[in-house]
Write a structure and sequence with these properties.
This protein is of the alpha+beta class. The protein folds into 2 domains: about 300 residues, no CATH class; about 90 residues, no CATH class. It is built from 18 helices and 6 strands. It has a 4-stranded antiparallel sheet with strand order 4-3-5-6. Strands 1-2 form a two-stranded antiparallel sheet. Strand 5 and strand 6 form a beta hairpin. Helix 4 packs antiparallel against helix 5 and helix 5 packs antiparallel against helix 6. The mean pLDDT is about 95.
Length: about 450
């Protein structure tokens, strides 16, 4: 039964088309980051870069080096799209994208993390076996079929992502439309649709539509009677997100994933009519079966467990942010904060209030006002900066934040020297204050 599920050979048209679309999308993501100014804002302008903690050694290339870096990533995206030295191009892009993901988190997005996971899967799958330069140069690799595990692994990965996204929305501020209302309020200036986005009925529709869409899209696509209707909903949902929320390639990548849910013959007839259609159902069990299954089980256990970690950390993740990243908690809250850093020279006891605008870009400033890990990192940066002047300092933070437009509450223990604290990604930090229950 398991062998038939994973190793039955099916037509590979969906994977071939997906490879082309995926390569195009990662090319556009790379060059788009240059031409929209994202590379300049996130990688070149900042004097200090908020990396993922533990990866401080990953720093942007000097000067305009990051423009070159992203241009090279774009070239590798084209390699993937046309299937030219596919494994090299896919592996190189994955490595470079992962480096930039770990290099900065001021522009953190769950979709950036998802792209890493999809890239890892794409390295493994035989996506260059047809309509590729690789197959043209080496006809021996040309195939019209693939093992069914290719589809299974994509489906499981997407089910995890969407299910967690749906469940995460089941909390009061989402259910009473507060989050959606705040999110749409920041789009009130949009031409034509700005006023429409402020309508209460639309907030209700987006609130509950988001829960049901995320929770039901994978089952809806898997079940033949609801497949077309679900696909239609996916088109509306993802295009709405693209035009209103401006979240890059993710909506189009999500639509591309739908290829794997339709019968191979349908995809073949729509996109690759000139390619021979594979209609066999041979089961080919590879010699690496046990290793592949074991590795897959470990991978998906990690994928299921990682988003749960915030439940084992004291406090509400909406307030503390501890355990938020890589947990598929997407578009769940809006936060604002008032944060002040004070440096105290331990030798003279002289106090100095830090002007954050002199050190941080506007994007970094918005993040450091509400995220404890970034406050801690900035404290470490200040400690190192003053150490270069021969001064040993303590760094104190006074911070108050508002979640979803509610009243401001203290976030950081202002008596704790953050420069002297350690960071543990798996537990609560005592200096991160929990909101007082009324």
């Amino acid at each position: 039964m398991l062998d038939k599920l994973l190793f039955r050979q099916i037509d590979n048209s969906a994977l071939i088309v997906f490879r082309m679309l995926f390569g195009l999308l990662i090319f556009l993501e790379s060059v788009g980051a240059i031409f929209t100014g994202w590379v300049k804002r996130a990688m070149i302008d900042p004097d200090f870069t908020f990396t993922f903690i533990g990866f401080e050694w990953l720093q942007p290339l000097p000067g305009y080096g990051m423009y070159f870096y992203y241009a090279v990533m774009g070239i590798f995206g084209l390699f993937v799209m046309v299937g030219f030295r596919y494994r090299l191009g896919m592996t190189a892009f994955t490595l470079m994208w992962t480096v930039t993901y770990l290099m900065q988190k001021s522009s953190y997005n769950n979709h950036y993390y998802l792209l890493i996971l999809i890239c890892l899967i794409m390295i493994l799958v035989p996506a260059n076996r047809y309509y590729s330069f690789d197959a043209k140069r080496n006809p021996d690799i040309r195939q019209t079929h693939m093992p069914n595990w290719v589809v299974v692994i994509f489906v499981i990965q997407l089910f995890i992502v969407y299910t967690y996204a749906s469940v995460a929305k089941l909390y009061p501020d989402w259910l009473d439309h507060t989050v959606t209302k705040n999110l749409m309020l920041s789009r009130a200036h949009f031409p034509v649709v700005g006023e429409l986005l402020q309508q209460p009925w639309l907030h209700k529709f987006l609130t509950y539509g988001g829960i049901f869409f995320d929770g039901l899209i994978i089952p809806g696509l898997l079940w033949k009677p609801t497949r077309k209707l679900t696909f239609g909903a996916a088109i509306f949902f993802h295009l709405f997100n693209s035009f209103v929320l401006h979240i890059g390639i993710f909506p189009y990548l999500s639509l591309a994933f739908c290829l794997f849910f339709f019968p191979p013959k349908t995809i073949h007839n729509l996109f690759l009519k000139n390619k021979p259609l594979y209609e066999g159902d041979e089961v080919v069990v590879p010699s690496y079966k046990k290793l592949a299954i074991s590795a897959s089980v470990v991978y998906f256990i990690i994928q299921i467990a990682l988003p749960l970690r915030h439940w084992f950390i004291e406090g509400d993740v909406l307030h503390t942010e501890e355990g938020h990243r890589m947990s598929w908690r997407m578009m769940l809250r809006s936060k604002s904060g008032a944060t002040h850093f004070t440096v105290v020279d331990k030798a003279t006891n002289k106090r100095e209030h830090i002007k954050l605008k002199e050190h941080l870009t506007p994007k970094q400033l918005r993040s450091v006002k509400t995220k404890p890990d970034m406050m801690w990192q900035f404290a470490q940066y200040l400690k190192a900066t003053y150490a270069e002047e021969g001064k040993e300092v303590a760094v104190y933070v006074n911070s108050r934040i508002s979640v979803n437009g509610k009243g401001y509450a203290p976030l950081i223990d202002s008596k704790t020297d953050l420069a002297a604290e350690d960071w543990n990604p798996w537990s609560h930090h005592d200096w991160v204050l929990l909101p007082v229950e009324e």
